[in-house]
Specification:
30 strands, binds beta-D-galactopyranose, single chain
Length: 377
């Protein structure tokens, strides 16, 4: 295949980066063609850390294509849902692995007001706007720049979204940095600036199955969420504005609980979401990265810990996967085949004055970080 012939191995000098020689010798970034889209050619980057963990990212939608990690016996498996090739990702109705923006999650009636001006977005999810609109950040080609530094190896992705794109105001410059560290962490740093006030809420939409993608469902994964409250939603999945206590409800994951233990309970919020599809209000003290969630798969011993600077996390248990998507290696993805932990500002924040503001102003720099840390116990 042409892709193989164009494979390019990039080693970044230890002198330039100030890395100990052992680290850079083992850090490897490989670039190959991933095919063509109507907007131009795209690449696939394979990043490997010193422990043999392998991350593959394409600059189409900044999509995390695969993440191979060992289990407690050292056997590796790919723990994110996705497709074998670019064609699959060109449709990608489930947003597998993508960077989501400008506004991750829903905006009610595709409408918001900033500085007295009402803006209108495409209604691509019933009456609402979802995940940035018809051609959000998950469907654009990002400029990609591989790097290696003291923390690990990764990719800097940049995208300039024009004033008016998908109905949003302001020219927005966005930078998303993926770093794979030798401590088996995937760090995602988001930055942005704008020349007009705009709503902004960036997230990463990986579907995790710690048993391995295509290997059953996540109902027996054990989940802890560092959240005493969540934002209940109406029938169209728009927050009511309430910050409701999880206490005494099936939304309580403050202590490790099987994802599937209460998922089919006759609880209005679970019926609306067809399972968990809710924003949890994280218990935070001050700034910085703080633990949001932890997931353990008792079968393989793989553990995922999520740390973030964001105020919320969307727990989505793959409720709309219905067996109509055939993903990697002909695996059919059924309901609950994976779960997403999308760190974020709350859904529909531009229409809720009581939620933390998700408006980026000119002169400000948007900064957000999330770390997905993997262990095997
Ligand atoms: C999630 C969202 C779900 C669904 C999914 C994509 O982020 O919460 O409701 O839209 O994306 O299928």
């Amino acid at each position: 295949m042409r892709a193989r012939h164009t494979a390019l191995f990039l080693f970044i000098s230890s002198l330039l980066c100030g890395m100990p020689s052992t680290a850079w010798e083992e850090s490897l970034i490989r670039k190959e063609s991933f095919g063509k889209t109507p907007d131009g050619p795209v690449d696939l980057y394979t990043i490997t850390n010193a422990k043999g963990v392998e991350l593959r990212v394409t600059n189409y939608g900044g999509i995390i294509v695969s993440l191979r990690l060992p289990d407690k016996n050292g056997s590796p498996a790919d723990i994110v849902l996705g497709y074998d090739n670019l064609d699959g990702y060109l449709k990608n109705p489930a947003y597998f692995g993508a960077i989501v923006g400008r506004y991750a999650n829903r905006i009610a009636n595709g409408k918001f007001t900033v500085d007295g001006i009402e803006y209108h977005l495409a209604k691509n999810n019933g009456p609402n706007s979802l995940h940035g609109g018809l051609k959000g950040f998950d469907k654009v080609i990002w400029r990609a720049e591989p790097f290696t530094d003291q923390q690990g190896s990764g990719l800097i992705l940049s995208f300039a979204s024009k004033d008016g794109e998908e109905g949003y105001p302001g020219n927005l410059k966005t930078k998303v940095t993926y770093t794979l560290t030798d401590q088996n962490e995937l760090k995602i740093d988001y930055e942005a600036t704008t020349d007009e006030a705009t709503p902004l809420n960036l997230t990463s939409h990986s579907y995790f199955n710690l048993s391995g993608e295509g290997n059953g469902d996540i109902l027996k994964h054990e989940l802890t969420l560092n959240a005493d409250r969540f934002t209940p939603v109406d029938q169209t999945e728009i927050p009511t504005g309430d910050l409701r206590s999880v206490n005494g409800t099936p939304m309580d994951f403050t202590k490790s609980t099987l994802v599937g233990a209460r998922i089919n309970d006759n609880y209005e919020q679970l019926l609306i979401g067809h399972g968990y599809d809710h924003n949890f209000v994280l218990n935070r003290k001050g700034d910085g990265l703080q633990l949001a969630a932890s997931v353990r798969d008792p079968r393989t011993g793989r553990v995922l810990e999520v740390y973030t600077t964001e105020p919320g996390v969307q727990l989505y248990t793959g409720n709309f996967l219905d067996g109509t998507i055939t993903g990697k290696q002909s695996h059919v993805y059924n309901k609950h085949a994976a779960l997403c932990l999308e760190t974020q500002h709350f859904p529909d924040s531009p229409n809720h004055a009581n939620f933390p503001s998700a408006i980026l102003q000119p002169g400000q720099r948007y900064r957000s970080s999330t770390v997905y840390k993997f262990l095997a116990q």
